[in-house]
């Protein structure tokens, strides 16, 4: 359904701008650039957190297609966003047919998790160490993260420079609690916080829910790992 709506919008914009060309020429090179941008933006769907940036290549004010009195056709050499480079074809039919090839560079700027500081190998990554920034999806060839919660608590497997994308191959899970390890159980109720001892019944990573036994009562409870050797029970 979304695809059909975008397709309708694309053809509507093409029709609208083509009719504009029948009536008058572009008033400026900037108008021509905006026209090209609208054609591409209307034909390429994006997802949440994505933004398309378009740069016209090898074109100047002397290369703009002249005024067209008859039908004016617009098309993309490569429909969709299958390549970081594309070509917009503008063709004028009639007594003096002409065609203009407009090469464009397309960047698909996408939200990705990046390092807010230098992260050394073996360091546990926290929310303070990461930030969401936009990068060109076409220039990223490995799996990346978009959700901060998916990175929080992981360990850097290699040096991650500040400002660089945190790739899945650059991190590893950190085992926060091992089976049979003594742990601190924390219970919170409003301003009240109670701590007690327990023994983990399984391995666990940050934010995992594991089972802990109370050595005194032998009662088994579930808790969420909130740090090394620390489990919060509800």
Automatic annotation (TrEMBL):
Residue ranges constituting the Flagella basal body P-ring formation protein FlgA SAF domain according to the UniProt record: 111-233
Record-level GO cellular component terms: periplasmic space
Keyword DNA damage in annotation: no
GO biological process: bacterial-type flagellum assembly
Superkingdom of origin: Bacteria
Described function: Involved in the assembly process of the P-ring formation. It may associate with FlgF on the rod constituting a structure essential for the P-ring assembly or may act as a modulator protein for the P-ring assembly.
Family: Belongs to the FlgA family.
Name of the protein in question: Flagella basal body P-ring formation protein FlgA
Annotated organism of origin: Legionella norrlandica
Phylogenetic placement of the source organism: Bacteria, Pseudomonadati, Pseudomonadota, Gammaproteobacteria, Legionellales
């Amino acid at each position: 359904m979304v695809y059909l709506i975008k397709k309708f919008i694309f053809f509507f914009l093409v029709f609208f701008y083509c009719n504009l060309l029948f009536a008058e020429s572009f008033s400026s090179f900037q108008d021509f650039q905006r026209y090209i941008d609208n054609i591409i933006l209307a034909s390429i769907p994006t997802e949440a957190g994505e933004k398309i940036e378009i740069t016209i290549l090898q074109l100047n004010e002397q290369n703009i297609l002249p005024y067209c009195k008859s039908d004016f056709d617009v098309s993309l050499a490569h429909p969709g966003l299958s390549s970081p480079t594309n070509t917009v074809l503008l063709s004028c039919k009639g007594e003096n047919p002409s065609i203009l090839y407009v090469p464009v560079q397309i960047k698909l700027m996408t939200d990705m998790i990046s390092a807010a500081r230098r992260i050394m190998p073996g360091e546990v990554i926290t929310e303070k160490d990461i930030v969401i920034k936009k990068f060109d999806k076409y220039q990223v060839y490995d799996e990346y993260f978009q959700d901060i919660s998916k990175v929080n608590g992981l360990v850097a497997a290699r040096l991650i420079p500040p400002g660089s994308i945190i790739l899945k191959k650059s991190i590893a899970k950190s085992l926060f609690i091992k089976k049979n390890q003594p742990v601190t159980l924390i219970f919170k109720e409003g301003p009240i916080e109670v701590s007690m001892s327990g023994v983990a019944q399984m391995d666990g990573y940050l934010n995992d829910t594991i089972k802990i036994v109370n050595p005194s009562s032998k009662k088994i409870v579930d808790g969420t790992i909130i740090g090394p050797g620390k489990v919060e029970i509800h």
